[in-house]
Design goal:
The protein is an alpha+beta fold and 162 residues long. The chain has 4 helices and 6 strands. Strand 4 and strand 5 form a beta hairpin. It is globular and about 70 Å long. The termini are far apart. The relative contact order is 0.16. About 3% of the residues have low confidence.
Length: 162
């Protein structure tokens, strides 16, 4: 009887410490988004298309973008979002996406996140200059039936008001 109690306790401890929390899953969704949008120097268009086709892994069937940039704003499907990612990647030799200062608030099957997003890249055309920007971003995610968290809205966060 004591052996059964020890085994049950061990299973409970392992389940509590090693199960995926919502925060971990949301962080992984954001990491995958950064991977999908990044582009290595010399990366060919076929690999970019394969990565862009994974947009449905991180975006809900409809995601609302409000970045005040006509090229990306609107309510888009994952396929449309993937096409816009490909178009953006075509303008750059390399792109590196990252995030920091991630804040997550989960409420049931919805989550609000805020983070500092970084975009580093080298333009292909024109003056072929480097781009290095950090923007504050707000997003909403929804838990899907399969347990995955997917973005339903993204926008720049107003930090300073005039």
């Amino acid at each position: 009887m004591l052996a059964v109690a020890v085994v049950v306790a061990a299973v409970c401890v392992c389940w509590c410490f090693f199960r995926d929390s919502d925060e971990r899953r949301i962080r992984r969704t954001l990491e995958e988004l950064c991977e999908i949008g990044s582009k290595s120097p010399g990366e060919n268009a076929a690999l970019g298309a394969l990565k862009a086709n994974r947009a449905d892994h991180v975006f809900a069937p409809v995601c609302r973008f409000d970045f005040a940039r006509q090229v990306v704003d609107g309510a888009l499907t994952p396929t449309e979002t993937g096409a816009r990612i490909l178009r953006l990647q075509g303008m750059f030799d390399r792109i590196s996406l990252g995030f920091s200062e991630l804040e997550i608030a989960v409420s049931g099957d919805k989550a609000n996140v805020a983070f500092s997003g970084s975009f580093k890249g080298r333009l292909k055309y024109g003056d072929a200059r480097d781009v290095d920007e950090i923007r504050e971003i707000e997003a909403e995610l929804a838990r899907q039936k399969d347990g995955r968290w997917k973005f339903t809205r993204m926008s720049f966060r107003q930090v300073l008001e005039k």
